[in-house]
Design a protein that fits this description.
- By secondary structure, the protein is mostly helical.
- It has one domain.
- Helix content is about 50%, strand content about 5%.
- It contains 6 helices and 2 strands.
- Strands 1-2 form a two-stranded antiparallel sheet.
- Strand 1 and strand 2 form a beta hairpin.
- It is globular and about 45 Å long.
- The chain starts with about 25 loop residues before the first helix and ends in a 5-residue tail after the last helix.
- It comes from Winogradskyella psychrotolerans RS-3.
């Protein structure tokens, strides 16, 4: 793709011992939600950078849609198991009961402006419902900041 590949990172899914995803199922699900929600927004954020390559764009948007299905399912599973009361999609930038350290994943999701139009004014639909209709993109620096919590 014209660049030098990056070195394979070493991951620490405990975030320096702050989480126990391998021994605590609710924590595993919470981190799954955080990773999947990040993935949805990360792929959307980079789509514009690969628009010139139809093969890469198609692959990226296919992965984006799979990430979205995974995110929805794990969010619903957490609610079904009683670990949260969230919907299968993000509402107004809320991280539900996830730790505060995950808020960067959800920042910006309260946006109601699309195509230069305040969709709440256009439709009369409340802001919570409008924000549920779009996943806002994350840029590379935002994604790396989120990922840095889990890099050893």
């Amino acid at each position: 793709m014209g660049g030098d590949p990056v070195m394979e990172p070493a991951f620490d899914f405990t975030a320096g011992g702050n989480f126990s995803p391998f021994t605590d199922y609710p924590t595993f699900l919470a981190l799954s939600q955080a990773f999947e929600d990040t993935g949805v927004r990360a792929y959307k954020g980079q789509a514009g950078n690969v628009m010139e390559n139809d093969v890469v764009l198609t692959a990226a948007l296919s992965i984006h849609s799979v990430e979205a299905r995974h995110a929805s399912m794990v969010r619903r599973l957490r609610t079904k198991k009683g670990h949260d009361s969230i919907k299968g999609w993000i509402t107004e930038g809320s991280n539900g009961t996830l730790p505060a350290a995950t808020q960067a994943i959800y920042d910006g999701e309260e946006n109601v402006m699309h195509g230069g139009v305040d969709v709440t004014q256009l439709t009369g639909i409340d802001s919570a419902a409008v924000t549920e209709g779009w996943d806002e993109p994350l840029n590379k620096d935002q994604v790396l900041g989120i990922a840095s919590l889990f890099l050893a």
